[in-house]
Model the fold of this input.
Amino acid sequence: MTEKFLVNSSPHYRSDESIRSVMGDVLIALLPALAVGVVFFGFRVLSLTAVTVAACIAFESLFNFIRKKKNTAGDLSCVVTGTLLSMCLPVTTPYWMAVVGAFFAIVVVKMLFGGIGKNFFNPALAARAFLFSWPVVMTSFIAPFRGADLPILGEISSEVIDSVSTATPLTYLKAGTMPDVSLYDMFFGNIGGCIGEVSSAALILGGIYLLCRKVITWHTPVFYIGTVAVITYIFPATGGFFNIDFMLAEILSGGLLLGAIFMATDYSTTPTTGKGRAIFGIGCGLLTVFLRYFGGYPEGVSYAILIMNIFAFSLDKITRPKRYGAGGEI
Amino acid sequence: MSTVEEVKILSKTFKGGIHPDYNKERTFARAIERLPASDKVIIPLRQHIGAACEPLVRKGDYVKLGQPIGESDASISCPVHASISGTVKAVEPRWNQNGTRELSVVIENDFEDRRFEECFPREKDMKRLSPEDIVDGARRYGIVGMGGAGFPLHAKLRAAIDSKVDTLIINGAECEPYVTCDHRAMIEYPRYIVGGILLIMRCLGLDGAILAIEKNKPDAINSMKITSEDTGITVAELETKYPQGGEKQLVYALTGREIPPGKLPTDIGCAVFNVDTCASLFRGFDTGLPLYQRVVTVSGDAVKKPKNLLTRIGTPYETLFEYCGGFEKEPYKIICGGPMMGLAQHSLEIPVVKNTSALLAFAEGNETIEENPICIRCGKCSRVCPMRLMPNYIFLYGSRGDLRECEKLNATDCIECGCCSYICPGKMHLVQAIRMVKGKLNRR
Done:
């Protein structure tokens, strides 16, 4: 025998899908929302995103280098984290804060827990929560089409921010009144808010892409948004009952769609079963409405998802699928 | 059949599964060619699940085509026969496809193909055969399940009679990528298949059977529909999905019944047989010759001219590849069976046996083995698992040695179809790990 063949255990066949291809799909799905961000808030959106992405890649590479491990930055997961982080920041966030956020997301939340698949908090959302240590920065939102007034480089003075800032629809909803913009504007993103959250249309487009590519399942977004819809419809903060306009405004404003489609579907930090994801979505929905109605900030999506992240593993445990044959005739 | 069952038949698939590239176009349109007998054959004395046969011949004996050369008294066993005529050169352990050494009879071909005297058709009118005759014939002709693990047909028929099955399912799904031997069989000798099905129907006292074929074989469906007209055989078209041909998945797709853990199809009134098994049974009664040859698909990107070959049992792999023009590229991996569940082989001297459906040769680069597989908790493995297990968690607990938790996760239910490993974006070795967990659980 002169031939040498590889002998290993079946299957001898693997799909082309890789972590890189999955993360690439998520990035493609984020593009519409990012593009809308640029349209409404100017080119600083791109420079801020570039900073968060570059910082995330750098921190992950550095961490692996120090730990003498193979660099995992190539799986693009840190690029997704960087993009998502920038998308849940106001465009006026200083670059140094973006770098701090990237450090917190990648090093503290992700890599110290063992990297992708092992972290139990969503890195981008945890970083956002951390950056709320600077609440004024995190709650200053500029009005659409005023992004051209922002300098790409350098500090943005508080006067500039004040001159272009606006109240978001959520501020109105929090106060129990309807926003001063139409639902139509809210759907397409012509409102104030974080970079990636304003355009519901763009986010839904991305969500449909992820569903078609089978990157995410429908459970979490549908149950999350559905729960918010039901509660805000029946118990609107405007008083009374059954207010469909209020419900639509709640869904289209703030980070709900960004959270439901891109954050609450993050693999590492959410359940793996369909039922688990449904419960996860319902939990996120309940907490979101609770925080929006009774919390100190108008928004509650990021904290709702972070809280539910804790239950990812236990939800998997209580929603284990019923084995084949368990309901058989014998 | 009740209305409920009729409704369920419409779905004709199962939950989970994957859609790999089937790569069947390389061979499905190629007519079966008869591979000239090689100058020697190596016939393992165990080509089936169950007890190995005792050799009936010794070195130096002259054997004829169809002559029994191994037999066992065990109830789960099946005789083996000479597939050529010639002189026994050795009776010794030889490597076989399972990666073990199995006592084998090596015969040198005299190229006379002298037929064994007792191999003659005993009963021309098959309608006069009793169930007992058919069970005896299945054993006499050395027939085993040719689509899968090689369970002796006579033992399966006996169990089916004893448990009074009400549904006979004939498996022509052929869901493994690359493999086309059953596809060709259904096109080229549908009459043998139908003849065999009728024999099994007679044996089990049933007047109907469901012949299940995946939709990606319209020509086979057509051929079988025409041939099985007015026989009581219904041709069912199944969704093309792997592992549609898995016994448990097939039974569910066709009847809506699930086989409870640790039970057999016969426990829920079903019996499943492969199409080529049926054809071999019929051929046995028709010609009096035992199962001494079978169709083997030779394919894979390293093979120059992929073919479907009618091959004598015991032919070394080398002979098949040579007949297919040799290797186009340096072969890196040789697989016996399909790429999803087939067994990687270390040598080309290993012989074709009764359940060798395909031989695949792949060049390097088809398979990248990730050095650092990672579970990203995407949950795709659970979604594709046809047994509704959670492969990622079995892996997790298994790698920590927590067998109790693996047992709670029903690791032993795994049918090792490989869907989880196939789909995993992190390239985890999931089914491989579950196999080890199962081994540990079974040894306990």
User: Anything to note?
Assistant: Confidence is low (pLDDT under 50) at residues 1-10 of chain B.
